[in-house]
Amino acid sequence: MKTDISKIEDKRTKNIYNIKNEDNYSYKTIGLTEEVIRDISSKKKEPSWMLDLRLMALKKFYELEMPTWGPDLSELDMSKIATYVKPKTEMQRTWDDVPDDIKSTFDALGIPEAEKTSLAGVGAQYDSEIVYHSIKEDLVKQGVIYTDFDEAVKKYPDIVRKYFMKCVPVTDHKFVALHYAVWSGGSFVFVPKGINVDIPLQSYFRLNAPGAGQFEHTLIIVDEGASLQFIEGCSAPKYNEINLHAGCVELFVNDNAFLRYSTIENWSKNMMNLNTKRVIVGKNGKIEWVTGSFGSKISMLYPMSVLNGENAKCEFTGISFAGGGQNLDTGLKIVHNAPHTSSVVDSKSISKDGGICTFRSNVVIHPKAVHSKLTVDCESLMLDSISRSDTIPVNTIETDDVEYSHEAKIGKISDEAIFYLMTRGISEAEAKAMIVRGFADPISKALPLEYAVEMNNLINLELEGSIG
Q1: How far is CA 33 from CA 27, 40, 79, 248, 266, in A?
Q2: Taking the alpha carbons of 298, 149, 137, 196 in that order, is the dihedral positive or negative?
Q3: 290 DSSP assignment
């Protein structure tokens, strides 16, 4: 029987995440020089203090060494990366004003429809700029601020200068310095004291341009006694050249406040995803991370929680799925800085067709963090004998008055389970899919319904080999 290769390729490329628009832009910069940085800042009409920070970060980028302990990044050549790509539109307040090709992409991804049914506000970024932004009027009346980060720099400079670079310092690593030099777009959220934002806000980041980088900055402040659910989505089509994602997320959860930060990342398999995320949590505050990492050629992503206040809490629930040609190096960092702090970690990974999943955890419990509790549970499922999964925990426990446990499980999909399901009339492919979806179910349950459905769709596409 002859296989129709064209039909297989059609199935691999025709999914909603692989939509490609013509590379239309009004302005583009290539490479990483002082001239490029000044050009970006000038085009954005930024205040001088932001340009000074950008130039300081550029200098730091060239001083810091490349990381050598994770995936091989030698293929990345910053002189060839488009560091700023401005689409042919300004930010709009209605979808009808967004150019048709860009709007149709977000329509296919379901963003406008989700805004109507389940979101309190939406930000949509295309390449290097936010092209659409909205927030419900009742939140504005309560003092909630939700806007793009470029606008926040100009409209709320005192708040931005108080928090920008304070959670993630420019010296943290080389790609944070890169981010601060060329950042563009992103989200700014401020939830005032005691305000409960019970319907999620969402920002979606779409990179369309080939050979480009996306460097959005997200800054969220949840003030004392307030609460927020925030959802981040990311995707890009497949190209035959390297794309780069080096965004940065700075989160501040003040005393008695709550933040759930959910992310579904579905980058294409020519993407290097070198993102940085960190939260500082105050007394009785709580952060919940819910993450799904799909796509990308390489990922190095380790959300960090700094529990500074007594009784601060962190919950982390995440899943990654690596197929052939993918090296997903993910995990987390947690620092316990106060008494009675607690963390619960539930991490899962799936690998197939030679894909590599690595889970790294770096846990620090300082001497003053007495009576703290920490549980780390990571499970890995390999769908064949050529894939790889590793767990690399690093623990620094500086007090005996603590409860800590770490459990890791790595296994292959059960042939007996597959056989049992097939005896019930289920095909082998669907039997594998059912087992994988069951394995991922705890993460699905932690997501809002629409995004749980999206995650299951991504799992199905990965199992078919249809992503990237």
Answers
A1: 17, 11, 9, 20, 30
A2: positive
A3: E
Distance CA 232, CA 277 (A): 12
At 277 the three-state DSSP class reads strand
- pLDDT tens, the chain, 468 aa long: 333 333 333 443 457 788 889 988 999 999 999 999 999 999 999 999 999 999 999 999 999 999 988 999 999 999 999 999 999 999 999 999 999 999 999 999 889 999 998 899 999 999 999 999 999 999 999 999 999 999 999 999 999 999 999 999 999 999 999 999 999 999 999 999 999 999 999 999 999 999 999 999 999 999 999 999 999 999 999 999 999 999 999 999 999 999 999 998 889 999 999 999 999 999 999 999 999 988 899 999 999 999 999 999 999 999 999 999 999 999 999 999 999 999 999 999 999 999 999 999 999 999 999 999 999 999 999 988 899 999 999 999 999 999 999 988 888 877 788 888 889 888 888 888 888 888 888 878 887 777 777 888 888 888 876 455
The reported pTM is 0.93
How far, CA to CA in Å, does 115 sit from each of 111, 374, 423? 6, 37, 43
Residue 200 amino acid letter: P
Query: φ and ψ at 52, to 5 degrees?
Result: -60, -40
The CB-side HSE value for 95 (13 A sphere, CA atoms) comes to: 17
Q: Tell me how far CA of residue 403 lies from CA of 283, 342, 343, in angstroms.
A: 20, 9, 10
Residues 6 or more apart whose Cβ sits within 8 Å of residue 36: 29, 30, 83, 84, 182
Contacts of 124 (CB under 8 A, 6+ apart): 98, 106, 111, 130, 131, 132, 133, 203, 204, 206
Residues in the chain: 468
Q: Whose structure tokens read 């290769």?
A: 5
CA distance 328 to 389: 10
Instruction: Identify which of 134, 188, 181 has the alpha carbon closest to the alpha carbon of residue 161.
Output: 188
Closest CA to 72 of 226, 343, 274, 304: 274
Instruction: Label residue 150 exposed, middle or buried (CB < 10 Å: 0-12, 13-18, 19+).
Output: buried
Please, where are the H alpha helices in 64-156?
100-109, 111-118, 137-141, 149-155
User: Phi first, then psi: what are they for 59, rounded to 5°?
Assistant: -60, -40
Structure tokens at 25: 């832009």
How far apart (Å, rounded) are the C-alpha atoms in residues 400 and 173?
31
Beta-bridge mates of residue 161:
none
